[in-house]
Write a structure and sequence with these properties.
CATH superfamily of the largest domain: Vaccinia Virus protein VP39
Number of helices: 17
Bound molecules: S-adenosylmethionine
Distance between the termini: 78 Å
CATH class of the largest domain: Alpha Beta
Strand content: 25-35%
Length: 665
């Protein structure tokens, strides 16, 4: 078989380079739509790494880490895969953000740009060696397909949705991974009728289609051939009669056996006529008895009655022109630029899976595959690198009537631990020191020695670097503040400002408010700064793409009447570094920054359990800013509020609530 070769396919010794296959455990960061009992059971099961109660899963992460991590659980267990990866055009990552009155396009964030670079980026050295972005793209696709192949059952199928610019390369990879014999079809989806890419004098044809390449794991794949309704013209010519009484449309079909005896047709007599017929005598007799084969007039050739409402429609071929793209007026439009129509996924999922089977999409974007799988009663696992994609998918899933409980997961601290060990070695002390100085360097701070909790200095402010495996807690902040007091006035490394920057990957729920206030009482200003995930990525670091952002501040009021607790968001302030000036100007009220918020009324210091949520939709840009809850039992509860802003970042706040013995007054 001819072979496609790309840079990096073989190592120096001529051995095939194998993709990264480190399985990392998933962290469940949110449960959606579960009762309290179900929630506890799910968390116990996930903690014990077994899950007899299936939960659909929405995962935020790079497929590079997510797919190998899924292998541990799902090797040979996925029934259907649909992927719609970026097409090597770079256009896949920009994101239009809509306000009530204005909209603007958010440039790809650093993680998203980085994924783009990782996929197609070529260093100067590589370029000198003649390596092209397509070499990198093919390597990335190939690695993805090899892990996906291992996830698929022997009856499974994979659909790869791809643009005509890279279709030929991806198909070669599919041939290699799945075998030429398992190629089933190339579907041409006419995705647009606009020929807007063909301007005056253009020397190419209008590019109006995408390809969807279909392969199966074996020849025993699940297959339900699709049909579409017959067109009007066909109905009129093939079903011209209307049955008296019932009004059913029908046609009279030829039942003689074309080709006669040579084609194996039987010859016998019906209605006084001896001919070669299409059916066996036995079959024919039962059709005559059922009134399905009649002689329309004495002496005429018998025919079969076929009703239009019993017809499955016309079989569908490989060219699909009947599914329109999402337009901005479509009800299902989520505003995600590369969103695919639900009708497309409906056809694919129905064609190649059965109810209850497992569907996977590791580039789920706005979540179309998960939404359709949910509606069709399939189980699903969906993943995307984009924080905004995962958020859009969550909102779309929540709007599906009777959506089954699902969990939102990531690889969180496990991914960071893996990175830390790989990057900074085995010795714990040396590793921690090297890690801290690496982060301080990225933050443009100078390392300082002699302290346990203070690690650097930047513009006269002290800097603390949080560990990779735990959130910064109130206890940590107390230690930082106590050490800061001792540090004041001791030598040239002493802080010039009464302030500390606390860098963390995660922050304990209550931290933003409580710790900041505590520190302020001690006369110290705290800045809580998130360490961005892209520090894990060499190339982002090399290219100076790492930016640190301060946490947003959320103010919520609580009112109580008997057992009813009412929450109202009073203020929300986001650091504006990432927001273009025009959009800052367009925001006249703080609530416009909020896209979505949700409440866990009884958090047990575990995963956020989404029990109520409000969000802006395409049709309604209004957002409720207050909500209430009636507690069944008196007691002390912890309420957690999670806000997701229009840039896709989330902010949480924890409030203790004491519910007294009486019901609502
Ligand atoms: C063409 S879009 C998918 C759109 C989706 N089919 C829908 O209907 O909304 C491609 C998606 O791949 C995601 N992506 C790109 N690189 C990724 C990676 N390495 N891991 C996971 N997702 C990635 C992008 O964030 C983007 O959402």
């Amino acid at each position: 078989m001819p072979e496609l070769i790309w840079d990096g396919k073989y190592d120096a010794a001529g051995k095939r380079a194998a993709p990264l296959r480190v399985p990392l455990p998933f962290q469940t960061v949110e449960t959606v739509n579960e009762t309290a009992q179900e929630r506890q059971r799910t968390l116990d099961f996930f903690a014990a790494e077994r899950s007899p109660d299936w939960r659909n899963r929405l995962i935020w992460g790079d497929k590079k880490y997510v797919l190998p991590s899924l292998l541990a659980e799902f090797s040979g267990a996925v029934d259907l895969i649909y992927i719609d990866p970026p097409f090597a055009t770079g256009a896949d990552f920009s994101l239009p953000i809509k306000l009530e009155t204005n909209s603007f396009t958010k440039e790809p964030n650093v993680i998203e740009q980085k994924a783009y670079r990782d996929t197609w980026g070529v260093s100067a050295d590589d370029r000198r060696r003649g390596v092209t972005p397509l070499d990198r793209y093919v390597r990335w696709v190939y690695e993805t397909l090899t892990v996906l192949r291992d996830l698929l059952t022997e009856q499974g199928s994979i659909y790869v949705h791809i643009g005509p610019n890279v279709n030929h390369l991806v198909r070669s990879c599919l041939d290699e991974v799945f075998g030429v014999a398992n190629y089933r079809a190339e579907i041409i989806w006419k995705r647009t009728s606009a020929h807007s890419d063909v301007g005056q004098g253009a020397r190419h044809l209008g590019r109006v289609h995408d390809s969807i390449l279909l392969y199966s794991a074996s020849d025993r794949f699940v297959w339900h051939p699709p049909h579409v309704d017959h067109g009007d013209k066909y109905v009129k010519s093939h079903y011209p009669y209307v049955e008296k009484g019932t009004g059913r449309r029908y046609g009279l079909w030829d039942i003689t056996g074309p080709g006669g005896a040579a084609k194996g047709n039987p010859r016998y007599e019906i209605f006084g006529m001896t001919k070669f017929w299409r059916y066996s005598r036995e079959n024919m007799e039962s059709k005559i008895a059922a009134g399905k084969v009649i002689q329309p007039q004495p002496g005429s050739i018998p025919r079969e009655i076929r009703y239009l409402d019993e017809s499955r429609g016309a079989p569908i071929g490989t060219v699909w022109t009947d599914i329109n793209p999402i337009n901005s007026q479509a009800i299902e439009d989520s505003g995600y630029p590369t969103q695919k129509p639900e009708a497309l996924l409906e056809r694919i999922i129905e064609m190649s899976s059965d109810t209850g089977q497992l569907v996977l999409d590791c580039f789920c974007g706005s979540g179309t595959t998960a939404v359709v799988a949910e509606k069709l009663g399939r189980r699903w696992v969906a993943c995307d690198l984009s924080r905004f994609g995962v958020h859009t998918a969550r909102k779309r899933l929540l709007s599906v009537a009777d959506v089954r409980p699902f969990v939102v997961q990531n690889l969180g601290k496990y991914e960071r631990q893996f990175w830390q060990a790989a990057e900074f070695g085995d010795s714990a002390t040396a590793r921690t020191a090297a890690y801290r100085s690496f982060i301080l360097d990225l933050y443009h701070a100078t390392p300082i020695a002699g302290y346990a909790w203070l690690h650097g200095l930047k513009h006269g402010r002290m800097v603390h670097v949080g560990t990779v495996d735990a959130p910064v807690t109130v206890g940590d902040v107390k230690q930082i503040v106590a050490e800061f007091r001792k540090a004041v006035g001791t030598g040239k490394e002493a802080p010039k400002e009464q302030s500390v920057d606390i860098l963390g990957w995660d922050f304990a729920f209550e931290l933003n408010e409580i710790a900041r206030q505590d520190a302020e009482r001690a006369g110290i200003e705290l800045r809580l700064v998130r360490i961005p995930r892209e520090v894990l990525e060499k190339r982002a670091v090399e290219q100076g793409d790492v930016r640190f952002y301060e946490l947003a501040a959320l103010a919520v009021s609580v009112a109580q009447t008997g057992r009813r607790v009412t929450l109202a968001i009073e203020d929300f302030v986001i650091p504006l570094d990432d927001v273009p000036a025009d959009i800052q100007k367009a925001v006249s009220h703080w609530s416009q920054w909020i896209d979505y918020w949700a409440v866990d009324w009884d958090n047990k210091d575990d995963t956020f359990h989404n029990e109520w949520q409000a969000y802006r939709t395409r049709d309604s840009k209004d957002l409720a800013l207050s909500t209430g809850h009636d507690y069944a039992e008196p007691g002390e509860y912890t309420v957690v509020i999670k806000v997701i802003d229009i840039l896709g970042n989330d902010t949480t706040k924890t409030l203790p609530v004491k519910v007294a013995g009486r019901g609502t007054a």
